[in-house]
Every structure is written in structure tokens, then in C-alpha cells.
Design brief:
Structural class: mainly beta
Order of helices and strands: EEEEEEEEEEEEEEEEEEEEEEEEEEEE
Helix content: under 10%
Length: 358
């Protein structure tokens, strides 16, 4: 296996080989992107890594993965309509999806038969405030996107003929006011969707209707460590200076600042990160998809990204304010984490992807 860590400050993607038996990492190479690289996605065939550049000119890079070493080679570049906070792939590799926080939009870019994103004609759909993530369900028929500033989750259908997004009915559902929905994960059995809220640290559990793609809220569970004494985060200010920017008052206390979410391939355990406390939360998932929070772990400072390997044995965590990133083993019975090692990384580590080499 190979681990990729994007570093927005230095503009590099650090590449490490991972021993599948021990979880140990070995530095392989460092790829210079020429810009502030952050979100990444691996193609469904494992042949390409796609990386979004958030500094101007905004673009997405198609990088070929060496099947032996995991090293990266630039193959194509395509312009993006805005800075993308999140990118993902549909399961068939037909479209690359992006969400723009500052541009208040989502986009779909076509992927060629060779796996390259090289066309400039992206579909662009205006959204509510601060689109933060976008993913498909496991079938690739339905697409969900979060709007942090508008407290909504958008619902789309991905047209199998055109590769374009179409609004589902209803086109969006509301979260709690001031929750700030951020990142999304879909359960491996495609029956549940979990949304992490940045400003309140909740995991909202939705039931997914496989016939319509519509989500129905089941529960909302806090991921914030007990006793942390944090206040809800504040939504970004509205364009109008006279408008109220947040439903939460600023009491001067440290704020909740949740970041990323991941689920094991067997669907039994879910993990989230919180940046103010620099912790990872573990949840166990019942047969009905319901969550039980178990424990919190201290991790790298300001943890922006986590990723679980395709088998579910290891979790890798990065911290934007740390000079290292961590590898944990996942206990198969309990889901509990045990630190295996910390490894040097370039400045500003934020996004992680793990690929299985051919």
C-alpha cells in the first residue's frame, strides 16, 4: 500500500510506502504540485490520484500512480471554476465532483476514458453558503453535498447518460441551525449516511432510501470530548455587514472545530476529528446504523484529515500544525486505536489518501 499526504503550505504531496502487515511507513518521494494542494481523490481503478490546487490558477491535476513504487507522475491538468475545498469520484470513474467553500458552488468535471481530467467545461451549480464536501452513494446514482453556512445537505441525482448532476426531490434537507455540516461518509452497505458538523461537532445519522436517494434524519450524536468546555463555532460572516453571521453568540471561549470523518470497510466503527482539542473520537455502529460514542484519543495538533486503509487495519491522521503524522492500528473487535508510529511530513499536512498497489 501507499500513503499520500497533501501539504497546502509547501505545495507538495508526500508519498510513503506502507507495510500491510505492520503498518510501518517508508518515505518514497515528494511530488511538487506548484500550488497550494489540499483535497485529493483516488480513481476507482487505483491508477490515478487527483489533486486540487486551491491557489490561483485553480486547477485539478491528474497524477498517474506507479503500480510498483506508488510514485506520482503528472499526466493532465484542467481548470477549476473556483477553489475547491473537497473533491471526490463517482464509483465508475465518469465524473470528478468538487465543492467550493468560497465560491458557494458544486461542480462536476468529465473524466476521459484514460482516466484523465483535461476538459475545461465543468458543470457548475450555485448552492447555499459555503459548500464544503460532495460525495456519491455507493451505487453512484445519488450525490450529497454540504453547505456549512446555510445548514443544509443538498441531494442530487447523477445522470448516468450525461454525467451531470440533477436536483433530487427534495433538493435539500436542513440540519440544526448553526450546526455547520462539513464532511460526509456513506456506510459500506449503502443504507446510512453520516454528516459531521463543524460548528457543533455532531454526527448526524441519516437513513438512505436506495430507491429514491432521499435522506431521513435518524439521530444526532455529539463527537466532542466531555469536559472540553467548548462553545459552538461561529458561521462565516454573511456578505451583508448588517446581517447576523451566526445563530451562536461569541462568549469568548474556545470553539468547537470538527474536521473529518471516516468509517471502516466493515461498517462497524466510525471516527471523527476535532481540531481545537486535537482529538479523534471513536464510535461503534450498531446493526441498525445507530452510533455509540466510545472514547477519544489525543492526536496530531489541529487534525485536519484522517483515512482508513482499504482493508480496515490502520488509520492515518494528519495535523496542520504538526511536523508529524500518525499511524494507528484498529482493533478488529473493538475498533480501538493504538499508535504504531509518527512520521515526519511537510508543513501544513491536511489531506490523506491510501492506495493499494497493483
Amino acid at each position: 500500500m501507499v500513503v499520500y499526504v497533501s501539504t497546502g503550505t509547501t505545495g507538495t504531496i508526500d508519498v510513503y510506502g506502507m507495510d500491510a502487515q505492520t503498518g510501518n511507513l517508508t518515505p518514497v518521494s515528494r511530488f511538487e504540485t506548484g500550488g497550494s494542494v489540499m483535497p485529493m481523490a483516488i480513481g476507482p481503478d487505483g491508477r490515478h490520484l487527483y489533486a486540487a490546487i486551491r491557489s490561483e490558477p485553480y486547477r485539478v491535476l491528474t497524477l498517474a500512480i506507479n503500480p510498483v513504487t506508488g510514485e506520482l507522475k503528472h499526466e493532465a491538468s484542467a481548470p477549476l471554476p473556483e477553489s475547491m475545498a473537497y473533491i471526490s469520484m463517482d464509483p465508475k470513474g465518469r465524473a470528478l465532483l468538487g465543492a467550493s467553500y468560497g465560491g458557494n458552488m458544486v461542480a462536476a468535471l468529465p473524466i476521459g476514458s484514460e482516466g484523465l481530467v483535461s476538459q475545461s467545461g465543468a458543470q457548475v451549480i450555485p448552492t447555499g453558503r459555503n459548500a464544503h464536501s460532495i460525495v456519491t452513494d455507493r451505487s453512484g446514482r445519488y450525490v450529497y453535498a454540504t453547505n456549512l453556512g446555510s445548514d443544509t445537505v443538498l441531494q442530487f441525482v447523477l445522470n448516468s447518460e450525461t454525467g451531470l448532476l440533477e436536483a433530487n426531490e427534495p433538493p435539500h434537507i436542513a440540519t440544526g441551525k448553526g450546526f455547520g455540516p462539513r464532511h460526509i461518509i456513506v456506510s459500506p452497505d449503502n443504507r446510512h449516511v453520516y454528516v459531521l458538523t463543524e460548528l457543533t461537532g455532531h454526527v448526524i445519522h441519516y437513513a438512505l432510501d436506495s430507491t429514491t436517494g432521499v435522506l431521513t434524519e435518524v439521530e444526532s450524536v455529539s463527537s466532542v470530548p466531555e469536559g472540553a468546555d467548548l462553545s459552538p463555532g461561529l458561521a462565516p460572516p454573511l456578505p451583508s455587514a448588517r446581517a447576523v453571521s451566526s445563530v451562536h453568540a461569541d462568549d469568548g471561549k474556545p470553539k468547537i472545530w470538527a474536521a473529518d470523518i471516516g468509517i471502516t470497510p466493515n461498517g462497524r466503527f466510525l471516527y471523527t476529528t476535532e481540531r481545537t482539542t486535537s482529538t479523534i473520537a471513536l464510535f461503534r455502529i450498531g446493526e441498525d446504523g445507530r452510533l455509540s460514542r466510545v472514547v477519544h484519543y489525543s492526536t496530531e495538533r489541529q487534525p485536519r484529515g484522517i483515512r482508513i486503509d482499504p482493508v480496515g487495519r490502520y488509520l492515518v491522521a494528519s495535523g496542520e500544525k504538526s511536523e508529524n503524522f500518525s499511524v494507528y492500528s484498529i482493533d478488529a473487535a473493538s475498533g480501538e486505536l493504538a499508535i504504531l508510529g509518527r512520521y515526519p511530513v511537510s508543513v501544513g499536512a491536511n489531506w490523506i489518501e491510501i492506495a493499494t498497489l497493483a
